[in-house]
């Protein structure tokens, strides 16, 4: 179950805005706020079965967007690659001796900052 | 017009798979193969007006996906950032003297290769 929560959470981050308002709210209540189907049904004044059906349709929609656009996969691939850039930049930084000029270190710092910036904004 | 073609081309790259088959084909014929509305109508056996309506709806859909997900904007932002990483990596490379060890140069080469790889796959 935990894995599913993480998976839906990621899909929801990327494609949540493409869901209908009701689908969006129900995914949020169930997966992010951890409410039960019965609790959601009470709040929205629909049956437990009704909540379940909307939830399933919303999940299917999220998976189908990922099938078509693959943004989560791309995001995870890019994350790994950007972390490698950071690793290499750190290694270069460590190996530059104190005598080696400060400009080189600044360039490496810039590389690290940009890589982190891309990581954060994706 | 040229700018619009480029813009729709980019949106189509990112969101084309979310269009209906007919919308997809008509965008392709009009923007990528440069056919006229009348020519497309003839091929698909629908009126020129019918083609126009589907085209407009398809364009609206592409713009609306961009409004919601902003993938084209993100792609263009990342492209600029990755190019900066490449620039800095090139500068570091130039400034490393021949005596400075080959391992450092290899790390920089790796950074450049990964940045290029991300650029190509986005």
Short summary of the structure?
The first copy, chain A, is mostly helical.
Write the layout of secondary structure elements.
The structure is a homodimer of 122-residue chains.
Chain A: H1 2-15, H2 21-32, H3 37-44, H4 48-69, H5 71-95, H6 102-120
Helix pairs in contact in A: 1-2, 1-4, 2-4, 3-4, 5-6
What are the salient characteristics of this protein?
homodimer, 122 residues, Arc Repressor Mutant, subunit A, 2 domains, 82% helix
SS field, number of helical segments of chain A: 6
Order of helices and strands of chain A: HHHHHH
Greatest chain-chain interface?
A-B, 35 and 35 residues
Give the end-to-end Cα distance of chain A, rounded to a whole number of Å. 25 Å
Q: Determine Rg of chain A (CA atoms, Å).
A: 21 Å
Low-confidence runs of chain A:
none
CATH topology descriptor of the largest domain in chain A = Arc Repressor Mutant, subunit A
Share of helix of chain A, binned: over 70%
Which shape of chain A, going by the Cα principal axes?
elongated
Count of the separate structural domains of chain A: 2
Identify the CATH class of the largest domain in chain A: Mainly Alpha
Oligomeric organization of the protein chains: homodimer
- Let me know the average pLDDT of chain A: 92
- The CATH architecture term of the largest domain in chain A is Orthogonal Bundle
**What is the CATH H-level superfamily of the largest domain in chain A?**
Winged helix-like DNA-binding domain superfamily/Winged helix DNA-binding domain
GO molecular function (chains A, B): DNA binding
Protein name (chains A, B): UPF0122 protein BET03_00820
Family (chains A, B): Belongs to the UPF0122 family.
Keywords (chains A, B): DNA-binding
């Amino acid at each position: 179950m935990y894995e599913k929560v993480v998976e839906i959470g990621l899909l929801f981050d990327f494609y949540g805005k493409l869901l209908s308002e009701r689908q969006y709210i129900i995914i949020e209540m169930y997966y992010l706020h951890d409410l039960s189907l019965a609790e959601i049904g009470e709040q929205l004044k629909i049956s437990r079965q009704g909540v379940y059906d909307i939830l399933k349709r919303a999940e299917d929609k999220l998976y189908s967007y990922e099938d078509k656009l693959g943004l989560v996969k791309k995001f995870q691939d890019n994350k790994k690659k950007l972390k490698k850039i950071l690793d290499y930049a750190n290694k270069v930084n460590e190996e530059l001796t104190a005598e080696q000029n400060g400009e080189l270190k600044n360039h490496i710092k810039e590389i690290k900052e940009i890589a982190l910036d891309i990581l954060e904004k994706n």
